Amino acid sequence: MKFTDNQPLGESQIEEIVECALTEDSASHDVTTDALIPADQEGIAQLISEEEGILAGINVAYEVFHKLDPSLIIAKKIEDGSRMQSGDIIATMKGKIGGILRAERVALNFLQRLSGIATETNRYVEAVYGLPVHILDTRKTTPGLRILEKYAVRLGGGKNHRMDLRESILVKDNHLAALYHRGLNLHEIIIKARQNSSPQIKIEVEVTNPVEAIQAVEAGADIIMLDNMNLEDMRHAVTLVDGRALIEASGGITLEKVRSVAETGVNFISIGALTHSVKSLDISLDLKLLS
Length: 291
What we know:
Helix 4 (97-127) crosses helix 5 (146-155). This protein is of the alpha/beta class. The chain is elongated and about 75 Å long. It has eleven helices and twelve strands. It has a six-stranded parallel beta sheet. A four-stranded antiparallel beta sheet has the order 3-5-1-12, covered by helices on one side. Strands 2-4 form a two-stranded antiparallel ribbon. The N and C termini lie far apart (57 Å). Helices cover 41% and strands 19% of the residues.
């Protein structure tokens, strides 16, 4: 298992994603703003949190505004990873209204989604507080936004599972089905994975019952993924593995269930819902005109 520390996003990473988002929105060709707003009209805007949560993506939003109007004076009031209350001012901008309006939707889309991911992740992290377990994300991310969404998970206190397919071997149900069809058993599959990969690559295997878990351990798997097991089977699998491999619980994990899963003794709990179905946090932009 390879974890990514809570490191900041690189400027080049942000720029590339922001450029794509602004192109998608035709932000430089806003016919509404072009038709109605005088080019020299100025104002002050505030980004405001409308509910409690964890801020994520302020530097991405900054890049959106700065890309469309480098002359905007932007002051960040809250940094990524901070807990916000309803009514908190996240950042202020002063300058031409046209640039602010062209950037508004794209900037809010990033802020709202990433802050929603960080906030939801933090709920799961808080739910297992005091237990020796890590909350993980998955690769169930928005195409093109994975690096941002996994960054938001880290801000919420979670850890990143694989960033991409090259980081580790994860033998899942469809891999197993294809190889079982060719006559291989679980032990042979794991041996094959070991023989055909770098010694530094970790091998994780998805199993559906305690018997498969112990078979995977005995074949040399580094990590055992308990897929959609009930709590009793999870506890049994943890007992059988007895520390010889790391154990990850996955599948159908809810906020109400996560602490009970953690109490079975697993090392990791992976939750696709952190990124694939999260509710965006309510953040607004309030514009005031200068006389």
